[in-house]
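Box 3.1. Reading complex inputs
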Amino acid sequence: MHNAIIRLLAAILLAMPLASLSYAADDESGTPHYPKNKPRHVSWSFAGPFGTFDPQQLQRGLQVYREACAACHSLGYVAFRTLGSESGPHLSADAVRALASEYIIEDPDAPDGERPGRASDVFPDAPPYPDSNPPDLSVITKARAVERGFPTFIFDIFTQYQETGPDYVYSLLTGYQDPPDGVEVPDGNYYNPYFVSGTTLAMPTPLFEEAIAYAQNADDNPDNDVPETVDQYAKDVTAFLMWTAEPHMTDRKSLGLAVMIFLIVLAGLVYYTKKKVWAEVH
Amino acid sequence: MTQSTTADLGADAPDAETEATRRDFLLIATGAFAAVGAAAAVWPFIHQMNPDASALALSSIEVDISSIEEGQAITVMWQGKPVAIRYRTAAEMEEARATPVDDLADPVARNDNLDPAAPASDENRSVPGREQWLIMLKVCTHLGCIPLDEAGDYGGWFCPCHGSHYDTAGRIRIGPAPENMAIPPFEFLDETFVRIG
Amino acid sequence: MQHDYFPRYEPKTAVGRWFDSRLPLTRLMYDSFVAYPVPRNLNYFYTFGGILSVMLVVQIVTGVVLAMHYVPHEDFAFDSIEHIMRDVNYGWLLRYIHSNGASMFFLAAYIHIFRGLYFGSYKEPREILWILGVVIFLLMIATAFFGYVLPWGQMSFWAATVITNLFSAIPLVGENIVTWLLGGFAVGQPTLNRFYSLHYLLPFMIAGVVALHVWALHVTGQTNPTGIEVKSKQDVVPFTPHATIKDAFAMTVFLILFAWFVFYLPNYLGHADNYQKADPLVTPAHIVPEWYLLPFYAVLRAVPSKLLGVVLMFGSIAVLFILPWLDTSRVRSANYRPLYRQFFWIFVAVCIGLGYLGAKPAEGGYVIAARILTTYYFAHFFLILPLLGLFENPRPRPASIADSVLKPADEVSGAPAAAGGVAAPETRG
């Protein structure tokens, strides 16, 4: 008898919130939720427990950043010296110095208040942009990890899916399209259903087919040529920005493997010891 | 620690001696394995106090020396410490060279660009071909104060903290300081720039 | 708890005796963590106290180390975190341990609390022990909140704004209290600096209350899954090695879960917006606290009245203080309380449901659902628990802990003669 009452109560208790939730789901007239389109999945080299960055891709991404993004977006937490990182873009020391010296760095100690960049400097601020404030891109792939929603976020714990941020950036860069009928796009804005806080944004599409001639394609070896497409540019610059956001990712994952193996062996040893210790009790 | 614990365990079950021995072995093996892990885990906590990557990136600096005239010196900061870059006059060098190495309190050159055992002759306080330039950590080797320029009994440096006198080659002559002031690693890149570090 | 089941500390050397007669520290440690008797039938849910102690140490040690690199200044706090993540040796590891450690700390605390609820650990004579635990929980929430502000990201800043503004609901002096908390008229440099100071202070206060909590525990002894007190040496095993090694195993497994997050999902439990530097001009579209505070956040938003929402939110924790006197049943363990056991699991589901709703926008059906669950949350404490003790018919319990372990379960329940003395329903009614 008691049990029947409790089951009934539990059922009502569960049903009422569920009913109100479905009401919430129907309630499209409420606050709209963005991004309108979920980010598209890309198969990234750095995904998963054994993922690593592809230095070639990061170097291409660096080139895309410099040619397509840097006019408006800064990279203020990234020091030139880190571009030499073996698990990152892996530029040579000379290449790092040469790249740094292409930038002008403000330095109150320098004779003219500015000097050529050195490896120890960070990327200088992008020139100020009128009427808007393009975000710094150093950690953008972590800052734009849009929510995955129930129940996907539970599965993500087991699949170790951590690439919402890069998927988002890639989707945004490749997601510009003509607005559907009946959608008003304000002046100076552009329609993109992948944008995190609306369907239009002030940034025009930054990438165009064949707009960037990859340095990698300029050598005599045709085997390492990559297509010069918007899709490829977007992937490369996103991978680069994932590296700028998480430069120690490879260290983290490889140390993680060692720690995991250690802990599992330790757990086995402790468990066996525990069984021996408790053997006489049970 | 482990021994006293296992001794207690043995006392608990005296009738099952082999069982207790096996358990002791397991305990020790598990404890040792865990201790190795704990020791490894300590390292990040220690290493985080070492200079970080941004500090290490500043371990070498390039200094423009083209505007320094003979008899003048500038002081630049390198790794948070002052480095004196002095374009010495012939008279200063003469004075330093006239001093026999045997008279020096510290007979070793303390020059990172040379053999660690090189004697503290005036030539060994600079690099070959650029003997006029004295590039030296201007930090008293006694307790780390900053000596005054062109002061003291030997016309070099004088440390006001505890009265150490250095000569025109930065060598300790009188006072509590045990060593000549250190010469950091440096390299003349061209007529204009010298890289320290 | 009787303490003579296992040989007490006996200094073996002259130095040991000399020390013991002047400061019996070794004696205290030995008698508390070696010879101390624990019920032999504790299950793995009872290992979370030990896990929590370790987590507290992990958080304090990583926190002290992070404080060596962190700068509590509105212009540099965010940058100093990035500096830690990029340049400090192993800085990324220390920071991820600390930020995920907070979540793991709460996860362990929740399991610990719900274990206490299930096995009636709050009941006489353990009321003080329980109340000290609730105090620790409150201190943990405060510490976590202050810590969350320190990275000075968007969520940090707006969480600080929203949470401090809760106090503006207090009549008459509310606004003044908020200004006093903030050290200004909005969250700013004074706020950040004092939150940093408090974030450093509170963990040591937690450690102090934990010492009291453990002291109180050692006075009354552990509960156990039967809810029956220890009666003889047959019921107990010495803390070391038995409980120590069992705790160590549970700890290691817990560390595997912890490492899973630190090394492979370090940002999973955090909020992406906190990788954006604080901007006092732009509120994030959707402000949410960390997952472990979501149920309370849902209670706050379920109520249309500002003051009542705040009162209920604090009340949802404060009710735990009086829980020992709300539960009228004298039977401790839910294993022998068929009705309470079901209500317990409903309560767990309600708390998880509130957590889910706390993450959702406060609109439409979500608010209605939150109201239903909030009502149930309080009904559980003020209606169900008092009434259950009066009407519930508990199942027969074993005569002793040793009986429950050594005899098969059907024999215990099927032999009322053995458990005759305790088989009758026990209520206060």
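In summary: Chain B has a mean pLDDT of 86.
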